[in-house]
Specification:
With 247 residues, this protein is of the alpha/beta class. The chain has 9 helices and 8 strands. It has one domain: Spore Coat Polysaccharide Biosynthesis Protein SpsA, Chain A, CATH 3.90.550. 46% of the residues lie in helices and 18% in strands.
């Protein structure tokens, strides 16, 4: 793989969270030049090295400690990363070999874009979860708002230019990063492949409660960002008009 396409996969982990054990088996499908950074607020589990060895990625897998907070952990991972491209994955994500191949091809074809995956849930027999999957497609493809559980991937230089993740945000740090990218004119591009994520929170707390909560929080965060985007576009338009030579 071309060194310019080297990927650093950054995975924030909460202390006591063990979903990474399932994800680590998928990481073996990445090209050999890929590195994997697990950023946790806890100590490295004893079985981490063993499972990394089983997946043949132990020589390029690292466990770092950080203070708690997804934004803090992902920024910490980015500061440690060596790859030209950064892929931020939730710990309960699952990727197929074909999905990883699609990501690599997208990085080659669209190197300046912010890439993301389509999302699916394990239980596709449930109409409610299929409804959520359709909703995610509408939000990301039509509204241009992919979320972090869709695996955001972008060039390291672009990530730094965007200012990284907002560590002061109470929630939705990935949502805010996408808005910043849009305001700077960065194009969003889907890899065309699926990333699977856990439906555990829907099962534990109820589909309606979690879905409504996500919608309400997204709207409250999106509205001021949309207003800011419109203001900046109007200001840029007036500035362009002012600089245009008069006839």
């Amino acid at each position: 793989m071309n060194s310019e396409l080297q990927i650093s996969v950054i995975i924030p982990v909460l202390d006591g969270e063990y979903s990474w054990k399932n994800l680590i088996t998928d990481l073996a499908f990445f090209p050999d030049s890929t590195e994997f950074l697990f950023i946790s607020n806890g100590v490295e589990p004893g079985e981490f090295e063993e499972l990394a060895c089983q997946s043949q990625i132990s020589d390029r897998s690292y466990w770092y400690r950080s203070s708690v907070g997804r934004a803090v952990q992902m920024n910490r991972g980015a500061s440690k990363a060596c790859g030209a491209s950064l892929l931020f994955l939730h710990v309960d994500s699952r990727l197929s070999e074909s999905g990883i191949d699609a990501l690599v091809q997208s990085l080659k074809l669209f190197p300046t874009d912010l890439l993301y995956f389509d999302l699916k849930f394990p239980d596709q027999s449930s109409f409610l979860m299929r409804l959520n999957q359709w909703g995610v497609y509408f939000r990301s493809h039509i509204l241009g708002l992919p979320f972090g559980d869709q695996g955001l991937c972008l060039k390291r230089d672009l990530f730094l230019d965007l200012g990284g993740y907002n560590e002061s945000a109470a929630y939705g740090e990935d949502h805010l990063l996408v808005w910043t990218a849009r305001r700077k004119g960065v194009r969003l591009k889907c890899t065309g492949a699926f990333l699977e994520t856990s439906a555990r929170k829907y099962q534990q707390h109820g589909w309606l409660k979690i879905t409504l909560r996500h919608i309400i929080l997204t709207v409250f965060q999106a509205v001021p960002q949309l207003i800011l985007l419109i203001k900046e576009r109007i200001a840029a338009w007036f500035q362009g008009k002012a600089q245009s030579p008069s006839l």
